[in-house]
TrEMBL record:
EC annotation from Swiss-Prot or TrEMBL: 3.2.2.27
Keyword Mitochondrion: no
Family (UniProt): Belongs to the uracil-DNA glycosylase (UDG) superfamily. Type 4 (UDGa) family.
Acetylation keyword on record: no
Chain coiled-coil ranges: none
Classification via Pfam families: UDG
Source organism of this protein record: Roseovarius mucosus DSM 17069
UniProt GO MF annotations: 4 iron, 4 sulfur cluster binding; metal ion binding; nucleotidyltransferase activity; uracil DNA N-glycosylase activity
GO biological process, one term: DNA repair
Protein known as: Type-4 uracil-DNA glycosylase
Known catalytic reactions: Hydrolyzes single-stranded DNA or mismatched double-stranded DNA and polynucleotides, releasing free uracil
Domain Uracil-DNA glycosylase-like intervals: 105-256
Length: 267
């Protein structure tokens, strides 16, 4: 069928598909899905009749594994960062994994004194398998550079180590739900224990929920707390700063507080 789309509409449609995560051609030839039902009907196997209700096992009686307990056990068994990455990759209970292209584990120097914990990968992070590489990540790099920190730095005092609460991209960049956060929390806690930074930065509400058990970043930001057994500074997420440039003032104050605290700790 000839396309009647204008180049403008075709481009808009492509951008829309990319936004939804359809970023790869998976076949050389196009598939006309409108023709498929007819063919499918010819080859379809008749569905099995439903068994009588009484014969179906009651789901409540089938005890599934507790995802948070399974995460706790898998995370505790990981003795180094490579083992933790492998344990995350093998963890089967988070549905987000199915829709993601890559596991996004971390970036930066594991010897860094500062560990940044973001929320979840977006499209760019999912494609590259690294946290904070999109627009928000570029802003994060500029913010860190302003206080002399860099993810690529070799010296631990100048370096940062970056991860997220969620290692898989949620569909359409939706917020992770409470269950997903709870099942990933043991992995984040183990991640912090293995890196053993002097301080953690909790970027945004999801990170505060995982680390502090509370949201409300406008109230929490800039106040030192404790998360994962470390001094923790909640900060506005760089994606929020891109949408709300006026909040950069507070973010700058928080960066200075981080720098001062690191200096005090001799870190
Ligand atoms: N936002 C996050 O919280 N993490 C990323 O890795 C990218 C964007």
């Amino acid at each position: 069928m000839e396309s009647t789309l204008s180049p403008h509409d075709a481009l808009a449609s492509l951008i829309w598909q990319i936004e939804l995560g359809a970023t790869e051609a998976i076949g050389d030839a196009p598939v006309n899905r409108y023709e498929l039902p007819e063919k499918a009907a010819k080859t379809a196997v008749a569905p099995k009749a439903e068994p009588p209700r009484a014969a179906v096992a009651a789901p409540a009686l089938v005890a599934g594994p507790d995802p948070a307990a399974a995460a706790q056990a898998a995370a505790a068994a990981a003795m180094d960062l490579e083992a933790l990455r492998a344990a995350l990759g093998a963890y089967p209970h988070c549905e987000l994994k199915r829709g993601a292209r890559n596991l996004v584990f971390s970036d930066g120097n594991p010897a860094a004194r500062v560990m940044i914990i973001g929320e979840a990968p977006g499209r760019d992070e999912d494609q590259q398998g690294k946290p904070f590489v999109g627009r928000a990540g570029q802003l994060l790099d500029r913010m860190l550079a302003a206080i002399g920190l860099m993810r690529g730095a070799e010296a631990p005092q100048e370096a940062v180590y970056i991860t997220n609460v969620l290692p898989w991209r949620p569909p359409q960049n939706r917020d992770p739900n409470a269950e997903e956060i709870a099942m990933m929390r043991p992995f984040v806690a183990r991640h912090v224990a293995l890196v053993n930074p002097a301080a953690v930065v909790l970027m945004g509400n999801i990170s505060c929920e995982a680390g502090l058990g509370q949201r409300g970043i406008t109230r929490l930001r800039g106040r030192w707390a404790e998360a994962y057994g470390k001094p923790a500074l909640p900060m506005f997420h760089p994606a929020y700063l891109l949408r709300t440039p006026a909040a950069k003032r507070e973010a700058w104050a928080d960066l200075l507080a981080l720098k001062a605290r690191l200096r005090e700790m001799g870190a």
